[in-house]
Amino acid sequence: MTLDEFFDEETVIDYENSTTFLSKSCGQESKALLVKLKHDAEFRKQHTKGTIVLIMSNTGNEHPTTYDELWGETLQIAQSMGVDLYFVSSKKKEDFKAEERFIKPGIWLNGEHFSDETFHTDSWTSLDAKYRQNSTCGSPLFKKTCTDGLKIQPIYKFVEWYLILTYPDLEYNKRNKNIFYAYRKKYGMIRMMIGFSAGEEGRRRKPQLPFKWIKAGRKEIKVPNKSYIKWFEENIKTTYPLIDIGMDRKGTQDYLVEMGYTIPLPSNCMKCPFTTHRELLWLDMFERDEFDEWVVIEANKLIKYADKGKKNRGVFGKLNKDGTPYTLVDALAYAKKRYKHMSPKAIQDWKMSHGHCVTSQY
């Protein structure tokens, strides 16, 4: 189905009854963006249209304080604005370790269980489950698929579900994301706000074309672009308001304090395969059980693929000088020696100063 089948010169966009989505992580940047939307009417008018909806997808491996932030101050802000906060989880409750209110899977709305519907696939129920299911431990040597499987895919499946539920007047056939085309025809592009801050311009999703040119000898040939997702390119408009106004991470922290809010811990998975030595040191100091579990996960992976020889590597994707895999235990020993001058408070302050270990684009 083409855009020409939906749009004509007489199309009138009903922006007043449209929806603007904010992809939440409950870290510093997305919280600052939410606070800015609450307190700055001109900013809100510039970056949103119609109803604002907050959506967060559960990775199953967030920091405990991230869940506290979600149902604490973030929910309070949302309720004071009169906007809904959705939290989507997978279907397997054994994947979750947070307090009881998070264990029941499905859709949560404003802190209460709303539906058993789930948007996570069986292969991506949580980060921990993925590690166990595939006998892997995560590594920068592998393709970066966790953000797509645990965040992007569930969020846009939720958006599709939300549009079907909220706009029963739309006429469409139930194939190939046609609800998005029907929505766009009446309400305009689907707006998705992302809380990247200034300095993270490289993380913005780049618009894709159906084809790309590659060199073949002395010639260039046109080939299909595997990164092109037709329904997305034609219907979704991702925006980055903090980048637009030049607010960097330090700026988000200062703004939250200025407006009387707490600064949350940066939001990222505790067992992120793109971790650093200081991240491991923080994990050892503040979430030792998570580190110990990850050590076991890595060890099981190394045992299972021992026949791969030097190709069999751990989380850091490196080898020791003797040719053995450089493990999490090795990395922690190095971190303790390299950063022995840093107290737990210094490590915590450092942890608060940066965001993701990975630079996924979306």
From TrEMBL:
Name of the molecule in the record: Phosphoadenosine phosphosulphate reductase domain-containing protein
InterPro entries membership: Rossmann-like_a/b/a_fold (IPR014729)
Organism: marine sediment metagenome
